[in-house]
Design goal:
Shape: elongated
Strand content: 5-15%
CATH superfamily of the largest domain: Cobalamin biosynthesis CobH/CbiC, precorrin-8X methylmutase
CATH architecture of the largest domain: 3-Layer(aba) Sandwich
CATH class of the largest domain: Alpha Beta
Strand order of the largest sheet: 6-11-10-9-7-8
Order of helices and strands: EEHEHEHEHHHHHEHEHEHHEHEHEH
Number of strands: 11
Radius of gyration: 26 Å
Largest sheet: 6 strands, mixed
CATH topology of the largest domain: Rossmann fold
Helix content: 40-55%
Mean pLDDT: 88
């Protein structure tokens, strides 16, 4: 039946209306659509069928009106405006309007010609091993290609470090960090826990969520993450973070990490912290006290208050990690590490 909130305070509600079928799977599909829409829209949503299945359109409208809805949007799960859209549904709604005095019933357009439906079909073709897979490979190759200046910069870094032709994953990460910072000393300063790079690459191959602490990190990670299909969450912009920080007397970055943990966004995620030691402390607390288990923590916060201590605690934990001991660090380092790991994963 989808999601019904009897007695809910919302005055607007939605009915997803399908044709109906003797096949039991038909009702289940509409229930799934209604449930997803209810979660996203925050409104009461019910699934109805014109025939064969229950509940009917009239059933849903009556229940929602009884629960307090005063405006009900009827969204047809139809492709085009056939006889049902032009005649049957409007006639039934006319009768319901007379019955449900004071309730506005609005019929939306059908699914129709929409590019998003074309994308669904493309996805189905890809799942069947069609041409989309080749497009994906070509797209990744384009994302991963180096521009001439970057290529030359990497060659200079290799020469200055006396390293030739290394394909070691850790070195690929280190080289991108040096490229981002211009600091050759970081080649010997970055610390990788055993197997950390392989663990992160494997997690990213499964499209692990990526989490960062501040907006600047999100700006540096998002272009590659978006092109390669990763979800990116930024702690300081997590829903409700400002109120939580105030109520619980913690920093916004720590509150964001705590909020994302409650939404199960940290488990098996790659977490990048380059600015806020309090965010790193919160990750460590969540792992120790609440069993949160990220795939990798890139812990490189910079500063003189809590930065070195939080990184030392990360190094002493059993969380897979990349860190930079001492006061040095920063968002550019965290971004470079994550971008390198995404590229390693995409390259296979």
């Amino acid at each position: 039946m989808g999601t019904e909130k009897a007695g809910a305070p919302e005055r607007t509600a939605v009915v997803i209306l399908g044709h109906g079928s003797r096949a039991p799977e038909a009702a289940g599909l509409l229930d799934w659509v209604a449930g997803r829409l209810a979660a996203d829209a925050g409104l009461p949503v019910m699934a109805a069928s014109l025939q064969f299945n229950q509940p009917t359109l009239a059933d849903c409208c009556r229940r929602l009106a009884a629960a307090g809805a005063r405006r009900i949007l009827i969204a047809p799960y139809f492709l085009f405006e056939g006889n049902h859209m032009q005649r049957d549904i409007p006639e039934e709604l006319d009768g319901l309007r007379a019955e449900l005095d004071g309730v506005e019933l609005v019929l939306t357009a059908p699914l129709g010609a929409d590019e998003r439906l074309v994308e669904v079909i493309r996805s189905r073709i890809a799942e069947a091993g069609g041409a989309r897979q080749q497009e994906k490979v070509q797209h990744q190759e384009k994302v991963l290609s180096q521009n001439p200046i970057e290529k030359q910069s990497f060659e200079i870094i290799d020469a200055l470090l006396g390293i030739t032709g290394s394909n070691e994953p850790e070195y690929q990460v280190v080289r991108r960090v040096i490229h981002a910072t211009g600091d050759l000393s970081l080649a010997d300063a970055l610390v990788f826990s055993s197997g950390a790079t392989a663990t992160a690459v494997a997690a990213l191959a499964k499209k692990a969520n990526i989490v960062c602490d501040v907006n600047m990190a999100a700006a540096g990670i998002e272009p590659t993450a978006s092109r390669l299909g990763y979800r990116l969450d930024c702690a300081v912009t997590a829903p409700g973070v400002a109120r939580m920080a105030q109520d619980e007397n913690i920093t916004r970055s720590a509150a964001g990490i705590r909020q994302l943990a409650r939404s199960r966004r940290l488990d098996d995620a790659v977490i990048a912290i380059g600015n806020a030691p309090t965010a790193l402390w919160e990750v460590l607390r969540l792992e120790r006290q609440e069993g949160v288990r990220p795939a990798l923590v890139v812990g490189v916060p910079v500063g003189f208050v809590g930065a070195a201590e939080s990184k030392q605690a990360l190094a002493e934990s059993d969380i897979p990690h990349v860190t930079l001991p001492g006061n040095r660090g920063g968002t550019s380092i965290a971004v470079a590490i994550v971008n390198a790991l995404m590229r390693l994963s995409a390259a296979g």
